[in-house]
Automatic annotation (TrEMBL):
Family: Belongs to the class-II aminoacyl-tRNA synthetase family.
Cell compartments where the protein resides: Mitochondrion matrix
Residue stretches making up the FDX-ACB domain: 476-569
Name of the gene this protein is made from: Fdxacb1
Catalytic activity, EC: 6.1.1.20
Enzyme class: ligase
Any one biological process term the GO annotation gives: rRNA base methylation
Name assigned to this protein: phenylalanine--tRNA ligase
Taxon lineage: Eukaryota, Metazoa, Chordata, Craniata, Vertebrata
Known catalytic reactions: tRNA(Phe) + L-phenylalanine + ATP = L-phenylalanyl-tRNA(Phe) + AMP + diphosphate + H(+)
Keywords: Aminoacyl-tRNA synthetase, ATP-binding, Ligase, Mitochondrion, Nucleotide-binding, Protein biosynthesis, Transit peptide
Amino acid sequence: GAEVLFSVDCTKLADYFLPEKREFDCIYFNFPHCGRKAGVARNRELLARFFRSSAEVLTEAGEVHVALCNGQGGTPADQPRREWHNSWQIVAVAAGAGFILSNVHPFKAETIHGYKCTGYRSQDKSFRVEGALNHVFTRSTPLLRFKPMRCEIELGSRKVSFQVPQVLMDKINRGFLEVNSNHPVQTVKEKLAAGLSQAFPLQRFDDCLPLLQQGHLNSVCHSNVFWIILSPEETPSTEEMSNGPANAVLFSHVDFCRDTDQNGCVNVQEGCHVLKQYYLRPSLLPYAQAIIQKGAFLPGTLHVLSGPVFRKCLITPYSMPVFHEMVFVCAVNRGTENSCIQMLVNNIKTSIHSLHQTVSGFQLSISLREATSFATTELNDFAAFESQLSKIQYFICMEIDTSGSCEKGSCVGIIRTAHYEPVSSDVVLVFASLHLDLLAMLLCGISDWRMLWTSDTRFLRQFPRGELRLFKSFSLYPPSYVHDVSFWVPDGEEFDEVAFHTIARHVSGETVVSIQLIDSFQQSETRRKSLCYRLTYQSCDKALSRQEVAEMQLLFRKEINQCLRVTLR
């Protein structure tokens, strides 16, 4: 009962079907080959043209199945695996047409009634299909191209609008912690709050925390902060003010600031104007301290704050320029702080173990370790930044393997204590801070923080509201591309590596997964310093083609030349 068409050119599928018949749910291509002794390059080109043709006749949720002989695909699923240059590189080829590999499984010819493999070197001869694999491709969401974006918020008694830093354009106002959200970060947050409410009376401050803060950051390196500068030329005119919201103020973002004062705070001047300094909040701790200073707290009550925080950081699998923090603060009598800490940690442990029961596949343990037992090199970025804010007494560590060691990335929380003399010398404040995103990643087996921020609906569909599941990636074996860049550093200037990584983040749309310093050279005569870095591009959720990466690399070279004043080699 099926309609059969012969002599169809797989690279021009749209030519053979009327527009109303171009909505296929599935396209199968078993063992494509150019014929005779065609090399890998010609067969890659055949696949590239086939995938581009398939994109024209496939439904949005459709699948493309391609069966290849063992080793041809070039993915880790092939056993044994061919060298990359000697394979058909099917995942990279498909990415050029906007497809990602979502599944791969053995091709079993014996289960297909009447199937016969034939055509070896264009002859009526069979070929080996033992170990053959069926590759299932689906459409990728497109790479995001953002236009300049402004965010309007209330700051004190007035409304302000600021330009969102490029690297954060897809991460502002995502609403992961909203009441009706089924995002795993929200599930972790609510489970923790519910568990702690069994031991403490809670008071929550989730909706009243401004994104912008103002003032000096005495202990924090300025290069780790997203600065927002109030600029006179951006202040609206009288006419604009009358047409816009009352008391509106416009802000601009400063990505790479060099002129700083002794406290590491940006010192920008324009004419005779000193520009007001704001920054996107890097921590919720100042808000917790403000609550205490205003006296808006009850001894024995656990005050809870949560929301996204923003920090410039180096590119690593567990380093995030934005993540969701949950802060607890409780005032207790001197001498009882240790029992309060133990009660707090025990309830956190219970809540996390309860969430873990719905996720199988690994062992989990949580421990409280004294900060003095950690070497600086052992700290992940979260713990290292928190150490800049104020002294830490304990780290909360989460281990998900059987090695028994607290690895980098597994420090998920910190605990501090402080005395509060204005109320009573007998009162001690206990502060705890948890990294909700890292907790969700470790619990759900998510190896890449970028997946938490994906716009692909296949991510959230895996998490029913209020439940955590072991995450199953919908983009398997994504291709990676390597590019090197070398340059001379400006004379007399310290190279800002955090700014270098931040440029890579926003130019690539967070597709740079690794930056390694592979060479450093200094001329003996001039003392000029040259650096060479290797960038690895790879997307965890989207199709990323070789051509797109080449364009990103060219833009990256241009940006570091302009923003960091390096001389490209």
